[in-house]
Amino acid sequence: MASGRIIFLNGTSSSGKSSIARELLDILEDGVFFHLAVDSFNAMRSKRELGTQELDAALRRTRMGFHRAIAAMAAVGNDIVVDHVLSEPWRLLDCLRVLPPEDVLFVGVHCSLDELARRELARGDRPSGLAAYQYDLVHAHGDYDVECDTSTASPRECAQLIKEFLPHRSSPAAFTRLQRRHLSGGHSENAQ
Ligand SMILES: Nc1ncnc2c1ncn2[C@@H]1O[C@H](COP(=O)(O)OP(=O)(O)OP(=O)(O)O)[C@@H](O)[C@H]1O
């Protein structure tokens, strides 16, 4: 059974990942795509109040489970659009360990700080300053297959760019390059 393709959108909160994912599901006609968002997995967790340590552990397990759910869906041939915020080094390292690197199209979703602040205010359901806090962290690894800027392009335009790039991605893919850089010889810096 052929494994599915994984379009992995990484960007800060409010950068426009979910909007691009929705557009991608509309315009990708070759294959059957699923939008898997880390937010949806967080929403599945029970609402019981947790202490700091218990919450940290639950959040970590949620994200680890999310990464493995992506791998499991793709392994049986489902095409996936992932919507994630790689704001801690271990999240990317874990994805590099569990996802088939050549099946991943790694997409950097950028947006200017001014526009992020404007969107946060307009949405009202995200803590003010969250995107600014994540801004330097999410793209720290510095390597993608393709990048888009939602300050200057609409979600549909970004999705179109990604769609056009999909058949032309180069090998080794960004995930393979990052695996070699960060996981070679079993070395896994910042894994914890
Ligand atoms: N290219 C764009 N141009 C203008 N507004 C946009 C663009 N993309 C998204 N938005 C708006 O920004 C807000 C956040 O978009 P979206 O929910 O897609 O971001 P996100 O990265 O998935 O955020 P989060 O991680 O916080 O869920 C929404 O109000 C959306 O309408």
Automatic annotation (TrEMBL):
Pfam families: CPT. Gene3D superfamilies: P-loop containing nucleotide triphosphate hydrolases. SUPFAM superfamilies: P-loop containing nucleoside triphosphate hydrolases (SSF52540). This is AAA family ATPase. The lineage of its organism: Bacteria, Bacillati, Actinomycetota, Actinomycetes, Kitasatosporales.
